[in-house]
Amino acid sequence: MEEIRARQSALDRVAARRAGQPRRLKTIEPTALRMLRLAADLRAQGARGGATPSEETILALAAFKAPVTWNRYLPTLRGWEQYAAGKNTPFLPADPGHFANFLTEAAKGAVGSTQSKQRSCAIQALSTVAGVASPTGDDVVKLVRAGLRRRLRGGRRGSSRPIFPHEVPATPGSPPAARGRGIGARRPLSVRRRARAQATRHMSLMSAASLRYDDAFEGQLGDICWFRDSADLSLFGTKTDHLLRGQAAVIPASHAPASGFQAALEGARLGLQRLLALPADTVRALAASFTERLSVQERGSGPAELAAWPQEIRDLAAPLYELGVPVHCLPLLGEWQYERLTAASDLGAPMARSEFVCTSRQVLGELGVDVTHVGAHSFRRGSAGALFHAGLGPDTVSTALRHRSSQATAAYVSDAARMAALANAIAPSRPDGVAGDGGVPSRLEPGPDIGRRRAPGLAPPRVGGPAPRPPARPAGRGGPGGPGAPSNGGRGGSGGAATHHAPRGAVHPQLLGGRAGPPLPEPRHPLLPHTVRALGHGATGDPLRHRPGGR
Predict the structure, then answer these.
(1) What does the pLDDT read at residue 90?
(2) Is residue 352 part of a domain?
(3) How many separate domains does the chain show?
(4) Which residues of 15-46 are buried (b: 16+ CB within 10 A; e: fewer)?
């Protein structure tokens, strides 16, 4: 209990510094703010007094949706604005007949009905701010949306392709030759190499903690508390953290260079070493411009904010604190880790989402991974599929994804992963050639590498929990309980403990995305026992100890 109290104290310290702080990088775009101002003015005209709402009032009216959501609604609202101007009809309140025509014209050539739903949600949200009736409540719009769903039902929702944790490399290859005249082409080779390495580390971190890209977009080094069995990452200002109280994510401990645990440590270590190599005057200038944008609450107590980090990192941070750099406020993924630094650089600048996606596709494509439809959300989807395939139930996977219900998690698990997990659960439970309750005979061949078989009528064993003991058989006969019963093969189980039914030393029994999965060592994490197994971790020793040779 003392360890639990210490962990909670570290998390409370992070929350005291970060909770309630404004989102600096997730603000409403100017065009979206202009449309919200039009909606707020329309509400004021319909109210008594007709006072012009201030910008703070407009933001308060729109606060029921996140700024990122309004920004994503912007292309849809801009399209409706242009359509309304062409038809000489008011932008707000939207006429139901014209909006129905807008939906049908915008749906031409579309695959699936997802965009029609987004258009409807966007105009409904803006109508709520304006205090007028939404066209989505009209029967004509409802019927048109239903017709589009039926007509376009052959197209599936355009979700990103999952990238499973074992597909993320430990180190990326050398960057390709620069082409064109863009910013990337003008970058020196050393900068492009560091950017690829740091983006690859962030891929591992997102896979390990099941993160959205926006979750860690404003993340800071001080948001991570390191322990021997895991690292707890506090997320602030996420999609589901409307009150800015913070949410917890777990990074399983591991020695594997490709693990998110080691990737986060390595990224911080190399970045701090780069800052220490700069002249002292340059570091002071960087610290001054960076610190002036931080509130007193965010600055916290200086070096004490890194008390939950390994001693090696604290030793690197100590001289930087003396020069005025609040190390705990540095971004988890920022230009300070790979760009050339001068006195005019911005220590708080993050890596742009577009650059991260482009770099991820290049790194994965060079390894032969199909990067079609790969996006920033691919690593969260891949993590969810790996956790589900490892034996975790929907409720546990939903907790790992920080979803409010397991229904939201269902979209993250592919049919292939769901059917493979189902096959693993039901196939070993029936004797060979004997149909079970569903009338499907087992196709498993008997052998020493198959887990203990059970007698008909017994409940199947649960993964990670004790299995029911089968009835004893007479001496001299094979099967459960007898001298001829096959053993677990030394894969960590004892007694009747259930094990993963895979041959000894083999890779994952099912293929994930057409590629063989990682081996399945025994879990070591005390809170999420199957998370370590799902992400391919589980080496012994102290994972916080630096081992040279990683990325």
Answers:
(1) 94
(2) yes
(3) 2
(4) bebbbeeebeebebeeebbebbbbbbebbbee
Q: Is residue 147 domain-shared with residue 268, that is, in the same domain? A: no
Per-residue model confidence (pLDDT) at position 192: 93
**CB-side neighbour CA atoms (13 Å) of 14:** 29
Q: Are residues 133 and 192 in the same domain?
A: no
Asked which of 106, 130, 151 is the last residue of a domain, the reply is 151
Q: What is the domain range of residue 130? A: 30-151
Distance of CA 70 to the CA centre of its chain: 21
Amino acid at 158: G
| Judgement on whether residues 200 and 264 belong to the same structural domain of the protein | yes
CATH of the domain at 133: 1.10.150.130
| pLDDT tens figures, 513-531 | 444 444 444 433 333 434 4
Per-residue model confidence as pLDDT tens digits over 458-478? 333 344 444 444 444 444 444
DSSP 39-70: HHHHHHHHSSS-PPPPHHHHHHHGGGS-HHHH
Instruction: Name which of 208, 178, 207 is nearest 192 in CA terms.
Output: 178
Tell me whether residue 235 is in a domain.
Answer: no
3-state secondary structure of 425: helix
Q: Which two tokens stand for residue 397?
A: 């996977």
Q: What is the pTM of this model?
A: 0.71
Instruction: Please report, as a single letter, which amino acid is at residue 402.
Output: R
- C-beta pairs of 546-550 under 8 Å, 24+ apart in sequence: 546/265, 546/269, 546/310, 546/312, 547/255, 549/257, 550/170, 550/171, 550/257, 550/262, 550/266
115 pLDDT above the threshold of 70: yes
